[in-house]
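Quick review question:
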C-alpha cells in the first residue's frame, strides 16, 4: 500500500476584504492584492487543491478521494469531509452564519453544513472578532436585525496570536480586519450574510444578504462553547488538542527537535505548517516540511515522526 503523503497546491481566492499576507507571510503566488483565502486542504468543487507529488501528482484531492478511498480508510460519504483555509482579513468580513447539515441538505442540496474553528496565526494589536450576539430569543434576534441595531446586537471579542475559537453552525460571527487565521471547517461553501456594513461589491451594488436564512439558522441565545485543552509532552514536542467534537478534532503541534514516533489514531491526517522548517518521517523516508505546506497523511501510514522546528495545525475527521 502506498504511504506517500499528499502535498497539496492550494487554491487561492480573491475577496473584497483580502490583502497580501498570503504572499508576504507564506510566499504563495497570489492572484491580486486582494487575496483573502488560501484553501490549503480542499476537495470542494469551488476550489480543489492539486496533489504535487507521488503517484497521484497532478490530480486533485477530490479525484484521489473518489478513486483511491483506500488512502482514506474507506471513510464513509461521497464528499471529502473537511477543508483547511488560511484567511487574510485586510478589512472586516461580513457578519454571517452557517447552517447545520440538516438545513444545508434540505435548502441548499449540499452534503454538509458548516461548523468551523479558528486559530489566530497573527493579528494587529487591538484586533477583534464578532462572536455571537446578545438577543435572548429568536424573536428578539429577528427584531434587532430588522431594526439594524448592530452596535447592541453583536458581541465583539478582542483577539491575540495563539487564540482559538470554536464556531459551530448557527453561530453569528465575523473575522475582522487585521487578522490572519487558520480555519478548519466542514467542506462547505454555504454562507448566509446577515450584515455587510452596506458596502458595495465589485459591481458597485450592495452585496446580497440572506436575512431569512440567517434568522432561521442563528442559535438563540448564543452560548459560548466551553473548551478544555489537552496537552501532552513527548520528547521535544508539545501536542495540544484544541478541539474534539462529533465531526473532527483539531490540535496544535509544537515540534522543537525530535518528536519521537506518533502512532496512528486517525482515519487520515490533515497537516498545515504555520511556521518553521523540518521533516516528516514515515518509516525511514524523510519529507521536507516548510512554512505554508499543506498535506494529507493517508490511512496506510501506521506511524509518523517529525524533526526540526515546526509549528503545525493538525486535524482529522472522527
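Suggested answer, residue by residue:
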Amino acid at each position: 500500500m502506498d504511504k506517500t503523503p499528499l502535498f497539496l497546491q492550494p487554491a487561492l481566492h480573491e475577496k473584497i476584504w483580502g490583502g497580501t499576507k498570503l504572499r508576504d507571510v507564506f510566499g504563495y503566488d497570489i492572484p491580486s492584492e486582494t487575496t483573502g483565502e488560501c484553501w490549503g486542504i480542499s476537495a470542494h468543487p469551488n476550489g480543489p487543491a492539486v496533489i504535487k507529488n507521488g503517484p497521484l501528482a497532478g490530480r486533485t484531492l477530490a479525484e484521489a478521494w473518489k478513486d483511491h478511498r483506500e488512502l482514506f480508510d474507506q471513510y464513509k460519504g461521497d464528499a471529502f469531509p473537511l477543508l483547511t483555509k488560511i484567511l487574510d482579513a485586510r478589512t472586516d468580513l461580513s457578519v454571517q452564519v452557517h447552517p447545520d447539515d440538516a438545513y444545508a441538505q434540505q435548502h441548499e442540496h449540499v452534503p454538509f453544513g458548516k461548523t468551523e474553528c479558528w486559530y489566530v496565526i497573527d493579528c494587529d494589536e487591538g484586533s477583534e472578532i464578532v462572536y455571537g450576539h446578545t438577543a435572548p430569543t429568536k424573536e428578539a434576534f429577528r427584531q434587532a436585525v430588522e431594526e439594524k441595531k448592530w452596535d447592541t446586537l453583536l458581541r465583539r471579542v478582542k483577539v491575540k496570536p495563539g487564540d482559538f475559537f470554536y464556531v459551530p453552525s448557527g453561530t453569528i460571527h465575523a473575522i475582522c480586519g487585521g487578522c490572519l487565521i487558520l480555519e478548519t471547517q466542514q467542506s462547505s461553501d454555504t454562507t448566509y450574510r446577515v450584515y455587510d456594513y452596506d458596502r458595495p461589491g465589485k459591481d458597485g451594488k450592495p452585496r446580497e444578504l440572506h436575512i431569512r436564512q440567517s434568522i432561521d439558522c442563528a442559535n438563540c441565545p448564543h452560548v459560548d462553547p466551553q473548551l478544555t485543552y489537552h496537552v501532552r509532552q513527548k520528547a521535544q514536542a508539545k501536542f495540544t488538542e484544541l478541539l474534539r467534537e462529533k465531526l473532527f478534532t483539531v490540535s496544535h503541534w509544537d515540534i522543537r527537535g525530535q518528536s519521537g514516533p506518533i502512532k496512528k489514531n486517525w482515519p487520515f491526517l490533515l497537516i498545515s505548517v504555520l511556521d518553521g522548517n523540518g521533516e516528516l518521517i514515515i518509516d525511514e523516508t524523510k519529507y521536507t516540511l516548510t512554512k505554508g505546506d499543506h498535506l494529507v497523511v493517508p490511512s496506510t501510514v501506521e506511524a509518523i515522526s517529525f524533526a526540526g522546528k515546526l509549528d503545525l495545525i493538525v486535524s482529522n475527521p472522527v
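Why it works: Residues 230-317 form a domain with the Jelly Rolls fold (CATH 2.60.120.10). The chain has two domains: 6-217, 230-317.
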